[in-house]
Amino acid sequence: DAGITQSPRHKVTETGTPVTLRCHQTENHRYMYWYRQDPGHGLRLIHYSYGVKDTDKGEVSDGYSVSRSKTEDFLLTLESATSSQTSVYFCATRTNSGYNEQFFGPGTRLTVL
Amino acid sequence: AQSVSQHNHHVILSEAASLELGCNYSYGGTVNLFWYVQYPGQHLQLLLKYFSGDPLVKGIKGFEAEFIKSKFSFNLRKPSVQWSDTAEYFCAVLTGGGNKLTFGTGTQLKVEL
Question: B73 near B57, Cβ under 8 Å?
Fold first, then answer.
C-alpha cells in the first residue's frame, strides 16, 4: 500500500451543504486522483493533480472542485452537495516511475440526504 | 475517447471451477492494461498489469491475463477459483498520455462453496 488515508471514512450530509473530503499520502507521489464508484458505472475520474497547485478535470467533474497546496494532501470539495453525489469516493496516487501503477485509498462513503 | 467494456456483470462459480472474465478496450495505439480487484468492503488492489513484452501476464493469487492485440482484449483467467476470490474485478486502460486510468464497469464474481 502507498500510505494513503482518506478522511472522513463515512459522512452523511444534507442537500445544499458544502462537503470536503481529504486524501493524504506519505509516498511523495506526484500524481493524485479522485474517483467516484457507483454500481454499474465502475470508477469514474472526477479530478486529478499532477503536482502542487496543478489540477485537471476528469470525466465527471461537474459539481466538484479540488485543491492541492501540498504534495501529500489532495482535497475534494462538493460546493453544494446533491443527492446524485451520494457515492463512494476513492483517492489514488501514482508512482513517479514509468510504470504508471495507481494505488488506492480505503474510500469515503458519502450519503447526501 | 478510449473505453473499456466488461461484458460479464455478474458471475457465479463453484469452487475449483475455471474463471475467465472478458475485457475489451477501444484504442488503436499502444496500450497499458490493468486488472484490479476489490474485495468486499475494501479498496482496489492491483492484480496484474501489461505494458509490453510477453502478452501472457501473471499476477498475484494465481491470476493471469492474456493481451490479444488483434481482438483488443485483455481477459482475466484463473484455472481454479476459491471462495476467497469472491470480489469485484475491474479492467482498466491507461489513457490521457499515461496520466489517467479508464475503468470498465466491473464484474462481480461470487464463488460458492
Answer: no
